[in-house]
């Protein structure tokens, strides 16, 4: 199959800027046709609904466009990427933030080339956004947690207790999963962008009060009761034999390695990673995450007190409001993420039931071949043999996995065959990397543990976790790691939010950390400057 016919490869105009940062965090790895066509449908629909509610888009823009370059995202060689220009224009349409701030926080990028022309028209919707944005904020904040509660019940019933019995029931569940994603996704998209705007305002307050943004992270920590800390708390209970593994999986089994990828195997299907992490908690004598939360709460309250004292009396009222909004709304990003992950696992469950049915009817060779059909093909019904189509798409999938697709590009990416990193390499390609400092006010040193799979790494006290990106299945390791170095993301990425909440020193968006840092190397991380210093691996 040529790339032009692949369901997971788009063709872009020469001037459109794309970035995989942030998207790689939520949608991991090279996507199968079902995985991407599901995501493409629900994500574009969710985001457009959100921006109509916020007033950024008119009602005429709610339907997804035909042109790839007008969409929010597309897949290239099976890897999802965000349209930087589109997100920049969104930021320019919103009072209280800017296109520059949005693309910096989402992608770790600067203003895309040619963006100035768009800037002149972005502010035309300010009056509409000024009216609709507060209403959208209240709507999303009020309804997100109740929707998540509903989805927990639906997921537990439809996936754990009584999964679909046949193909027809699985189609119903697959469509319901898409609807559930859109229901929570429109609110999640709203909260993500609103949260980014608030984070930018908080960073601005830090600069006004202290002359720099170095302490801004102290103002965005200790919020408490985040989804990931609940997950880690329950894992701690499993480690202490206070919660059964079965109940843990009934609560959190939708998580797992590459959980945003429909074709992945998650904890409810294979609980071995959960057992392994629980054992790490026992061996390392990890403290309950509530203790971390309490320490970070005290840190935030002290920083707020210092900030308000440093600001003039006339600016304190506005500052208090911004800080209050940050506490209420920034954690909502992770609530929305938990919601759409329930929907994804509902779709995953339905797909595997379909796969079993198609194998039984002789239309597929193996259960997971179902992931090489598209969402529309499965919903329409499959009544003829799909062996040739699947074989062609599988060959593309395997080839795409060998390619070195850049982190960001303009137009269409050039993707040569990747050069594998030798497991025996101890020589340093570089001695220093610079990313975005997320949290940490002093140097932290330790042994680098470079990991591509959270289930395949054993962290010891003092180890620094180096990874490409993180999703919630990685976060239990945050309690064990001395510090974090993450290849992709920005200040409002999942890994950054959770690192701040737990007070774990973190540098994000190094781009090449997993490639350039040898496993076992001694490294030093500064979560303020974003600098990672690398020393050679000690000889065995």
Structure description:
The structure is a single chain. By secondary structure, this protein is α+β, with helices and mostly antiparallel strands. It has a domain at 432-537: 3-Layer(bba) Sandwich (Glucose Oxidase, domain 1). Helices cover 49% and strands 10% of the residues. It contains 17 helices and twelve strands. It has helices spanning 23-26, 33-54, 84-92, 99-107, 115-122, 126-161, 167-210, 227-239, 245-252, 272-284, 289-310, 313-329, 332-360, 375-380, 387-400, 494-502, 513-516, and strands at 17-19, 73-76, 79-83, 408-410, 432-434, 436-439, 443-451, 464-467, 483-486, 506-508, 521-526, 531-537. The chain has an eight-stranded mixed sheet with strand order 5-12-11-7-8-9-10-6. It has a four-stranded antiparallel sheet with strand order 2-3-1-4. A hairpin with a 2-residue loop joins strand 2 and strand 3. The longest helix is centred in the middle third of the chain and has 44 residues, at 167-210. The protein is globular and about 70 Å long. The mean pLDDT is 93.
